[in-house]
Amino acid sequence: MFLSLYYIAALILVLSFHECSHAWVAHRLGDPTAKREGRLTLNPLAHLDFVGTLMMFLVGIGWGKPVPVNPHNFQHPVRDQAFTALAGPGANLLLALIFAIPFTYFPQGPGWDQATFFCGAVLDLSLVLLVFNMLPFPPLDGSKFYALFIPKRFLPAYFNFLSKGMPWFLVLVLVDLYVFERLFGASLIWTVVSELTYWLKAAILLIV
Q1: Would you please indicate which residues are annotated as catalytic (active-site) residues?
Q2: Which of 27, 91, 142, 208 could lock 21 by a disulfide, CB 3.0 to 4.6 Å apart?
Q3: Domain that holds residue 187
Q4: Is-contact 75 29, C-beta < 8 A?
């Protein structure tokens, strides 16, 4: 029971920090849309997405409610939208680095186990959310960040793809879970995410 509560608390912290960071960077770069809609806050009620949260518990990957961004308010729309998208995963990396320290150095024994579990949950969930969101599929953050590397002549078609790609992403997730997993014995998306998360966590624990 306690472990479940700590895991849920860690998930709420990680998602809220992720989405608030999007809103903060967008606001700093000139777009007040998220602030006007109450997203420039760490209040989890402003950020939790029902489907994304449910997916996190069911399959280990998920997302928060997308932060509204109007790129027309940016001085450099493509670049600033990419930086806004990167803010969420960047915030998760920062959280992972912070919580890796107590996770590594808390003493073992009665009274410390639950605190260590919570720190480990924040570390793991931060890295999972970071890696998953950097995948190049809309509406994930990576799809917007990688626009920086798309030649200008292809950008209109690419942004059109981003605006209409959500249903295709959900189809991909369902096919991955119910077809690929039966054919190959594992979800391909989750295999990629878990492998990258494992090595990133190993690197962080090595440096702290």
Answers
A1: 19
A2: 91
A3: 2-207
A4: yes
